[in-house]
C-alpha cells in the first residue's frame, strides 16, 4: 500500500495550500487595510473573491474531470496556486489583488473538490478512510505553519503583506512538480474511458504487484449504473473436480458454478435452505420490505449488517472470508506472484484469434493495442469451446476444474487477492449472459468463520462457507465467454456528463446523503466558533499573558490562532487511526454530541456569570473540545462520504453538486454571521448552531450508512439495491 499512500500524500498538498492561504489572508488583511486604506465593503470583497472563485469552478470541475480526467484538474489547481501567488506578490492595487484572489479560489475549489475523489479512486478500501483524512490533517498543518510565518513576520518593523501572500508560490511549485511528474491518472477514470492498458499499469504501481486482475475486473464492473439487483444467501466452496462430477450452470439441487477472475479458478455455490438461512440476511430483507414507512432509511440497516462481527480486513493479507481455509479465492499457487501460468499466453492467443470478429461485430475498427480498451481480458479464458452458450462438461477438456491439491485443501494461508476489504467477486453464466456476484462472509455470530458440512456437496459431502452475495447483471456481454469484456469503448466512454444517471434511484439516494451532510456541516457552527475564538481567549487572559512577553496585540492574536490550530492536529491523527476501524458513521454519531454539549455550555457561560475565571475556563475548554471533535468527525467525513457513494461514471458530476452546496453554504454562513450577531447576539447564534448539530445527529442516524472497508463499486451497488428494494417493497415481497 506504499504506492497508494505516497500518491495520496502528493495529491493532498493542494489542501495544504488551501489551509496555508486561509490563515495567511486572515493575517495579511490587517496590513492590507493599513497600506491600501480599504473601505469595509472592499475588505470583505478581497476575502470573498476566493470563495466566489471556488464556488464558480466547482460548478464545472466535476463534469470536466469526468471528461478530461482527475490528474489534469489537479495540475490546473497547482498552476492556479502558483500564478496567484506570483500575482499577489506583485499586486500594485486592490483590483489586481482581487483578481489574484479569484485565481486562488479556482485552485482551492479544484483541490477541495477533487482530491478526496482522487484518493478514493486510488486507495485500497482497507485504508481509504485513513488516507482521505490526510486533506484535513495537511490543511490544518498548513494553517499552523502559515500562522507561524505570519507571526514571525509581524515581529518586524514593517511587515509586507505582499510577501506573506506571495510565499504561497513556493509550496505550490512543489505541488505542480509532483502533479506533473509523479501523480498517475485515476485507474477508475482510465477504465471508464477504455484505456485499459494504462489503468493496469497504474494499478500495478499503486498495489505494488503485477497481478491486478481482480482490481481490473472490479473497475470495469463499476461502469454499470442501476440495473436489477438481488441478494442471495449462499454456501460457497472452491471447486475441486478432476472431471468426475459434471456440473452445468445450475443443477437440480440449486448448486451452481461461479467463475473467478483468474485462470483455473472457479467455485461451487448453493443456496442456503430456508430453515438454515442466516438471521442477518432475513433481517436485511425484512428491513427493506417492512420499514418503508419509518423515517430511518433501511439502507442504513443494510450497510450496518454487512459490518456486524466481520473479521477485520484492514492491513491483513489473509483471506477475510475463509480464515480456516487460507485463500479460497486465491490464484493458481504454482504461478509467480499468484498469476496464472498461461495468462499472458491465453490473452495473446485469444486476441490473435478473435479480435477481427469483435471489430466486425461492434464496429470498433482495428486496433493494434488490443489491451487498450474495454474488450481486454477481465476473466480468465476458461475454454475455447464456449461459443455454444453452455458450460462444457468438465471431462470435455475444460480448464475450469481445480486441481486436487488446491489452496483450499492445503489451508496454507496464502494471501487472497479479492477486490479489497475482504470482498470477492465471481461470475455465473446463465441464459447467454453473466451475473456478477459480490461475495463476503456472513457476519452472524453463528456463521462467522465456520466450516459447514453440507450433505450432497462435491464427493458426497463438502465443506462450505456461509457468504452473502449481491447479484446483478455483469457488464460482460454474451461473447465474453471467450474471455473478453464486450463493451465497446465508444459506448462506455461517454463524451459528456451523464445527466440522466442522476435520476437512477441509487444515485438519487446517494445525492440526498451527500448534499444533506454538506449543508448541515456548514451550519454546524465551525465558522462561528472560529470567529469567536479570539474573544474567548482574550477573555481568558491569554492576550495579557502574551503581552507580558513584549508581544503586540496583533502578534499575540496570530500566535493564539496558531496555537488553536496546533491543538487540532493530534485530534486529526486520532481520527485517521479510527476512520477505518470505528467507521465514518460511528465517528459522526459520537463526536457530534460533543459539539452539541460544547455549544450549549458556551451559551450557558454567556447567560450565567459565575466568576471571570470560571467562565473563561469553561469557554476556553468548550472551544478546544469543539475544534478537536469537529476535526475528528464532521470536518473530514462529509468529503470522504461524498467521494465514496457515487458511481464511477457520474462521480465527478455528483461530487461537483455536493461541493457547490458546500461552498454556497460557506458563503452564507460567513457573511450572515455578523448580521446574526448584531440582531440575536452570540447566545442566539450558538443556540442555532446547537440545534443544527442536533438535526445533524438525527440525519446521520437516519440516513448515513457505514462505508468503511467496502470497495467503491460495492458501495454504489448496495445503494442501488437498497433504493430498488424499497421502491418495490409495497408491490412485492423482497
TrEMBL record:
Using the record's annotation, list all stretches that form the Major facilitator superfamily (MFS) profile domain.
7-708
Transmembrane spans: 43-61, 73-90, 102-119, 131-155, 161-183, 553-575, 587-610, 616-641, 653-673, 679-700
Topology versus the membrane: Multi-pass membrane protein
Q: Which family does it belong to?
A: Belongs to the major facilitator superfamily. Sugar transporter (TC 2.A.1.1) family.
Q: What is this protein called?
A: Monosaccharide-sensing protein 1 isoform X2
Q: Where in the cell is it found?
A: Membrane
Q: Where is the composition biased (Acidic residues)?
A: 357-371
Q: Which UniProt key words apply to this protein?
A: Membrane, Transmembrane, Transmembrane helix, Transport
Q: Where is this region: Disordered?
A: 351-401
Taxonomic placement: Eukaryota, Viridiplantae, Streptophyta, Embryophyta, Tracheophyta
- Keyword Transport in record: yes
Q: Which PANTHER family match?
A: PROTON MYO-INOSITOL COTRANSPORTER, SUGAR TRANSPORTER
Q: Which Gene3D superfamilies match?
A: MFS general substrate transporter like domains
